[in-house]
Amino acid sequence: MKYHKIPDETIRRLPIYLRGLLLSSEQGRQSISSRNLADFVGVNSWQIRKDFSYFGDFGTRGVGYNVEKLTKQIKKILKLDAAPKVALVGVGNLGSAVLAYPAFRICGFDIAAAFDINPKKIGKKINNIVVEDASKLRTLKKRRINLAIITVPRDAAQQTADALVKAGVRGILNFSPCYIVVPKKVKVITIDIAMDLARLPYYMPAS
Ligand code: NAD
Questions:
Q1: Is residue 202 assigned to a domain?
Q2: Mutate to test the pocket of ligand 1, among 89, 93, 94 (most ligand atoms within 8 A of CB)
Q3: Percent of the chain having pLDDT more than 90?
Q4: DSSP string over 61-85
Q5: CA of 66 relative to ligand 1 center, distance in Å
Q6: 189 CA to middle of ligand 1, Å?
Q7: Is residue 62's pLDDT more than 70?
């Protein structure tokens, strides 16, 4: 089954639903109504039903959605079912915090490698991952790691992205505060808490 027509906005909400489903599963639920899921994730139940209708209706009226089935389905759509391996480049303050973030594993990611250029960091173990020399980025292809997280200083971000692309990486989560240029075949998502914070006052009600 192919999922050509799922809008980006829905794809953006799927990981949020996944987190809600995993939480409800931890609480022993086998099924969940769109209303209950709405309480978990803060998206209204109408929107949830509409989003789920894009990839088939798993709900049963009066019973709700089967938590396990829906979890599997969302993981499949997001391509998380194969526990994708991820590399992190730049094991500084932010990189170390990211390595220690348990939610990656919950979502099915396996942070499989970490790289830095600082000789004091290379060889050290952080959260059970041995930091490797960034000159070894080219080994990623052989290790079938095609996702990466960039947490290097701004001036090193583009060269890091270039090296990652050369090593076969096709998805980059960029935390460096800059725009990085990559070929079309590579997807970059940039996250910057300062940019999100900068939008917040606009939405605040006048006091
Ligand atoms: P840091 O100085 O503590 O860590 C940077 C690490 O990158 C260091 O360990 C350094 O040795 C390593 N490094 C430098 N050049 C490298 C290269 N070419 N290859 C591999 N490793 C390299 O900095 P930090 O506080 O962890 O911040 C890291 C980045 O994240 C910065 O660009 C910062 O602006 C950004 N940041 C983003 C957010 C956000 O919301 N997106 C929040 C905080 C920091």
A1: no
A2: 94
A3: 73
A4: TTTEEEHHHHHHHHHHHTT-TT--E
A5: 42
A6: 16
A7: no
In this prediction, residue 108 has a pLDDT band, given cuts at 50, 70 and 90, of confident
Which of 77, 97, 128 is the C-terminal boundary of a domain? 77
Q: pTM of the predicted model, to two decimals?
A: 0.91
- Provide the number of structural domains found in the chain: 2
Pocket of ligand 1 (CB under 6 A): 89-95, 115-118, 121, 134, 151-154, 156, 160, 175-177, 191-193
Tell how far the Cα of 177 is from the centroid of ligand 1, in angstroms.
Answer: 10
Ligand 1 atom closest to the CA of 175, numbered from 1: 41
Nearest residue by C-alpha to atom 2 in ligand 1: 92
Residue 200 lies in a domain: no
DSSP 133-199: EGGGGGGGTTTT--EEEE-S-HHHHHHHHHHHHHTT--EEEE-SSS-----TTSEEEE--HHHHHHH
Rounded Cα distance between 13 and 96, Å, is 27
Number of other CB atoms surrounding residue 6 within 10 Å: 13
What's residue 60's pLDDT? 67
